[in-house]
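Lab notebook: predicted structure, single chain.

Context: the supervisor wants predicted structures on file for every construct in the current expression panel, including those that have not yet been purified. This is the next one on the list. No modifications to the sequence; it matches the entry in the shared construct table.
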Amino acid sequence: MSPRHALLLFVAVLALAPIVPGVPIFWITLLGNVGLAALVAMGLVLLTGVGGMTSFGQAAFCGFGAYTTAVLTTVWGWSPWASLPVALAVVGLAAAVLGLITVRLSGHFLPLGTIAWGLSLYYLFGKLELLGRHDGISGVPPLSLAGWSLVDPRAAHVVIWIAVILAGVLTTHLLDSRIGRGVRALRKGRIAAEAFGVDTSRTKLVVFVWAALLAGLSGWLYAHVQRTVTPAPFGLNAGIEYLFMAVVGGSGQIWGAILGAGLVTLLKEALQRVVPALFGNALQLEGVVFGVVLVVLLQVARDGLWPHLARLLKAAPRVRPATAEPLPRRALGGGDRARPLLTLDRARKQFGGLTAVNDVTFSVGRGEIVALIGPNGAGKSTTFNLVTGVAGLTAGRVSFDGVEISGSAPQTIAARGLARTFQHVKLEPEMTVLENVAMGAHLRGRAGLLAAMFRLDRRDEARLLAEAAAQLDRVGLGEHLARPAGALALGQQRVVEIARALAMDPALLLLDEPAAGLRHFEKQALAELLTKLRAEGMSVLLVEHDMGFVMGLADRIVVLDFGTKIAEGPPDQVKTDPAVLEAYLGGVA
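Prediction complete. Output recorded below exactly as produced.
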């Protein structure tokens, strides 16, 4: 049994705790509070642990959900169930507005931004007359089902944990999909994700809104279980506690959010009873002890509790994906053979007073391998970034298949058929090799967000995974598809990047130092693969320092030195060019 299935079984048993005779109401209520916190922590795991966006303001979204249903049911007389879609709509709208501003931030500005609007919303809740100011709203009606009131904590407990299970299943399904791989790729930054067609801004916003909706659902349930809504539970302190729950359970582990919520909630309750008994009520050391215990726990289990559980319950290895209907392939070798596929026309890139690429002009023909070489700092990787849209041109133009792509977004350029690898490997180390390669086929899938959540994307997903497995077989790493990418040697990781680029079915393949870290026989296999791709009609532009590898493979070589093109031509001509010898060796002699 996998850890995920084991925890799902445990949660299902936990949801049925009220039917067990003799369980005190106190524990039922406490476990219900764990479930409410788990919903918020689950969204934070997705947002922070998976998507790499730290938020301290999730408690404010709980407040949106709680106050919306409180006003609708007490002032307007709505049914609690009728208020649910409205509450979620209000939360979603608020999250979309705040997310459009917040997800554009990066580094320490992102968490600071969430702290700012979290504090603002907390004080807003306490100032509005409609929301009862700091006294809040009381008399919120309990949930009822078919005329049966769920005011009993045992009945409310079941509703809470059904919501937790459904939220966990939907979120897990989301991550185990094409869109989910795009979300997980965000942790390594936007450059690699955008290179394979992921709209990172939209993906971040989707994650932000989904995490907020889970918090809003928790707030809606809280309002009808507690039957009183005040600003106190929706402040910054609560937001920090929710973040602790996500980290303690295991950042990046959806079901680990339940473990984190349970531990933090139970620990906090225990300390409120034990610490006063030991030190008296005068000192009020509960918060101090609570903080110290959490810091110690994070030192002992920095990755959270979930990985330790996973080691106890050994997960079954993922098997090779079943064969599926092949994805449609791009027709290579078509078009006007006399017209270059890629053209750089006086491309220039300046960083302040530094000219990294200085009016460089060259082209890559259809079914041709062109090598871009030069000493360190010559501007080769910057040129790659200009072609793929990672960096903007200062002057000049870049055209692909007769269409100017200068100024286009990386994902737009990728959709035209340009795939790349990176000088410094950009794989998601915790994802399997198969999942990393499937990222390359992102644009070849069609299933959307709802299809992923409700498992309506299985046919589409099977085709993407089968394509990834086929590309791994093509590069000779098929036996490693179930391993975490971070467990491979550097040379193997570079080959995985090539497989990921091939999964995109490109017309032009840009390889940044693909032979670095490879052994001799691996370089031979790579040269054979690139030769085969050329024969199939694919074009290749590569940066490489291994001159033996380049000279025996490339049709043409372009040489850069300090950002300026100093030579271009067939390998035999370039290797005897005096300017090239000067750049590499200091002179012809």
